[in-house]
């Protein structure tokens, strides 16, 4: 009746409900305005892609090439990079730069070569990476360092080498392919998850610091992707895992992820989560009910006593889908 309406009006007038609804309204308005903003131009932009000889990196090369970008493809193996080049048409023939992302000196020289090719970089896609499967108790510290060198220090070194040229031009977009494991960690992925957590933190800081120069920073966090990342993963003794995880085999099509990366560049998205329902639930569980999340992860760890079983079901995720 009238009394109920008056009570509702009082609540809406200044109570918590009005704050919640007002906040949702502002959020929806913000999203509408962002969608109306014209997308960034990709055609004729200089786009650098690391790990471009396989997996997600190769798919990104195809997608950005089709969009008319001028590509600089990077990787360790010249022959494999050339295979990627040969798959693309001759409208905008890509350039290639061969180097090992885990070697600091090689990264510096590669950055100089990249800038010599076109004079500037419009978009840097830090995609290259390696994964890891193993029990912490049986993993040598050198393996932890190797994963961190490639997945964290490599992208940081290349970004910082190219960043001054972007700052001078007041233009540039840095993208890093992280992982859902940059947000949560699951058993038998310690080195990988740690490297992605560090990556998330660094590029979040970078985004805040370079906003004043008009630069964009995007962190893209996929779940599992159907690439050879798990086959090439390091084990505790530094050897290759050699097995295609069941969850990886059932993961996202790398072409779909590559298109999402292109859209993130066009829309200047700051943080993109590409994960399924289970991974998304785990992410919120870690935030809202950490005790339950830790219990679930402990149960998973007991179930997966052998590293070979670590690819079973769960909320984890792959990340960069290209080799170094």
UniProtKB/TrEMBL annotation:
Residues 305-324 are annotated as: Disordered. The chain crosses the membrane at residues 15-33, 272-294. Residues 45-228 form the Ketoreductase domain. Keywords: Membrane, Oxidoreductase, Transmembrane, Transmembrane helix. It holds the Pfam family adh_short. Residues 310-324 have a biased composition (Gly residues). GO terms for cellular component: membrane. InterPro entries: KR_dom (IPR057326), NAD(P)-bd_dom_sf (IPR036291), Sc_DH/Rdtase_CS (IPR020904), SDR_fam (IPR002347). GO terms for molecular function: oxidoreductase activity. CDD domains: 11beta-HSD1_like_SDR_c. One of its GO terms (biological process) is lipid metabolic process. Putative oxidoreductase. Belongs to the short-chain dehydrogenases/reductases (SDR) family. This is Dehydrogenase/reductase SDR family member 7B.
